[in-house]
Every structure is written in structure tokens, then in C-alpha cells.
Amino acid sequence: MEWIESIENPEEKKKGLEDLIKKNPENAHAYYELGVICDYMQDFKTAVQYCQKAIALDKEENTLFHAFLVYLYNQRVDFDEGKALDAAATLAELEPDEGEDFIEKAIDSLVMVSVESTYTYITKLIEQGRHGAAKNLTRWVFNP
């Protein structure tokens, strides 16, 4: 599964986005786009860094950025169930309803997470009072 199937002239687009960020270092969407290009170019760890920067700068909690991070942790970077589940729980709090293609891609990527780890994580979410995230994550993982 690919986040983006095709990018024309990725090197050129990457350079343009880097120039844009130099002019406007607070542009969260530019960091996200740069992360997508890095993912496409198979520089997965850098893609995560740019996605995390986009999330840190984003004032409106763009679910696209969070969904991309879930995807990266599950599909691309040295797989870490804890990081993957943390990212998925945050997304589940922000966007409880599926429907957007990017949310579906993030949910589909959760097949990498073990059932045991997910159950333990959901139990912790409930203990923390994060019932909405627990409910949505349960639905996403166990009833895809």
C-alpha cells in the first residue's frame, strides 16, 4: 500500500518545498508535503520527522497529518507498536468517523499491530479515561 502512488519530478518538488519552508518555516502543510515526497523517495525516517514537524506546527490538528504518521509508523519505519498505537489513538480522538481515503489508509495499516498489544493499549486508554479513543481504536482494529 502506498500513501501516494505517483509523484512527477519528486526531486524538483522537494527542492521547491524546501525553498518554501525557508521563506515560511511555519507552513505545516509544506512540511507534510515534504514528508510525503520523502516517503515516496523511500527516506522513511525523514518522512516521519517532517510529518511530526507538520503536526507540531498545525494549530487545527489536521487529521491528514496524523493519518500519515499512523501510516508511516505501521508501514514504513522500523515498526514500533507503541508509536503506531499512540499515533492511531490520537487520530481516533481527532477523527472518529472513517470516510476519507487517507483515514482508511491509516486504519488499513493497523493490521501490522498485534492483537495482544492492541488489547493492552486499549485497556490503558480506558484507564486514562480516553474512552472515545479506546472505542474507535477497538472498532478500527477488531472490526475493519
Provide structural commentary:
Helix content is 72%, strand content 0%. The chain is mainly α and 144 residues long. It has a single domain (10-142), classed as Alpha Horseshoe (Serine Threonine Protein Phosphatase 5, Tetratricopeptide repeat). The longest helix is centred in the N-terminal third of the chain and has 14 residues, at 10-23. The radius of gyration is 15 Å and the shape is globular. The mean pLDDT is 89.
CATH fold naming = Serine Threonine Protein Phosphatase 5, Tetratricopeptide repeat
User: Which consecutive residue ranges, at least 5 long each, have pLDDT under 50?
Assistant: none
Helical run tally: 8
Q: Into how many domains do the coordinates divide?
A: 1
CATH architectural category? Alpha Horseshoe
The share of residues in extended strands comes to under 5%
For this structure, what is the CATH homologous superfamily?
Tetratricopeptide repeat domain
Under the CATH scheme, which class? Mainly Alpha
Q: Give the integer mean of the pLDDT values.
A: 89
Order of helices and strands: HHHHHHHH
Structural class: mainly alpha
Helix content: over 70%
